[in-house]
Amino acid sequence: MTHMTSLPPSITTTDSCSSAGDGGSPDIPRRKRSSKPRTRARSPTQLVRLRRLRRAKANDRERNRMHMLNHALEKLRTVLPAFPEETRLTKIETLRFANSYIVALARTLESAGGGGGDDGGAGGGVRDADGSVLLAVGNVTVRLGRDGNT
DNA sequence: TAGGCCATCTGGTCCT
DNA sequence: AGGACCAGATGGCCTA
């Protein structure tokens, strides 16, 4: 959300592209180079510009990817039992709560099916007087109405 | 002011 | 070559 006009702090001569992987080991006999270059020759300034362009594109994709991740997280929040309005779960809280919630739901389903094998832990369901189900999710108790509402 | 959360940038690695 | 994914670094914002 901030205004980072990407001025990379480390666009210097330290070129990490020259790490292992470009086959630069001196003791390995290299294959004879074919007469035709595999890529078009570029001037140093062209290379720098190309690298910047690629970086900018990669940044863009990465930003997009994180936005999609956040979107999915937001969707997950909407299917979790609602908390009081202002308390918005953080990312890690959302994931942990979702995990506990699923476990609790699964246990409830299991016990409703006549299984009954419950060892406590992440919680299970208890049917209320009015037919709704009380789910213990972590240290929170969630009431599921008969229609599925919380 | 310290600490938590978050967005973004960045370089590395793997895959197509 | 280029894209996806990942983890580390950095800086901003907010709250106790």
Provide a descriptive summary of the structure in words.
Residues 30-41 have a biased composition (Basic residues). Residues 53-105 form the BHLH domain. InterPro entries: bHLH_dom (IPR011598), bHLH_transcription_factors (IPR050359), HLH_DNA-bd_sf (IPR036638). With 150 residues, the chain is mostly helical. Among the domains are: 43-79; 81-113 and 127-149, no CATH class. 39% of the residues lie in helices and 9% in strands. The chain is built from 2 helices and 3 strands. The chain has helices spanning 44-79, 91-112; strands at residues 125-127, 133-137, 140-144. A 3-stranded antiparallel beta sheet has the order 1-2-3. Mean pLDDT is 67; it is low at 1-33 and 116-122. The structure holds a DNA duplex (16 and 16 nucleotides).
List keywords for this structure.
single chain; 150 residues; mainly alpha; 3-stranded antiparallel beta sheet; disordered N terminus; DNA-binding; protein dimerization activity; Basic helix-loop-helix neural transcription factor TAP
Strand fraction: 5-15%
Helix-strand topology string:
HHEEE
Low-confidence stretches: 1-33, 116-122
- Sheet having the most strands: 3 strands, antiparallel
Concise overview:
Pfam families: HLH. It comes from Amphibalanus amphitrite. The protein is mainly alpha-helical and 150 residues long.
